[in-house]
Amino acid sequence: MVNTFWLAATLILAGATASAQTMPKGPAPTSQTTRAGAAGVAARLQAQGYSNIHNLRRGPDGKWVGEASRNGVGHTVTANPDGSVTAR
Predict the structure, then answer these.
(1) Looking at the chain, which runs of residues are DSSP E strands?
(2) According to a count of CB atoms within 10 Å of the terminal CB, is the N or C end of the chain lower?
(3) How far is 42 from 7, CA to CA, in rounded Å?
């Protein structure tokens, strides 16, 4: 009976360890992926009439914040992951 308990406990622990080791991890953010993301955000802003886009940086919440001009007026712009853009 005791051997059965230890065998079951060992199998449970081994299964938990195996699944923890095989869980997929997303790619680590790199400067290259940040540049590619910034380029996509800049293209989205340009399509909405913004120019002079600079200082784009991605926050931990996935939003991009930067500076841009529209109709000759400077704005702080925020591009949300859902595609919406707000300007202040």
Answers:
(1) 51-58, 64-70, 73-79, 85-87
(2) N
(3) 58
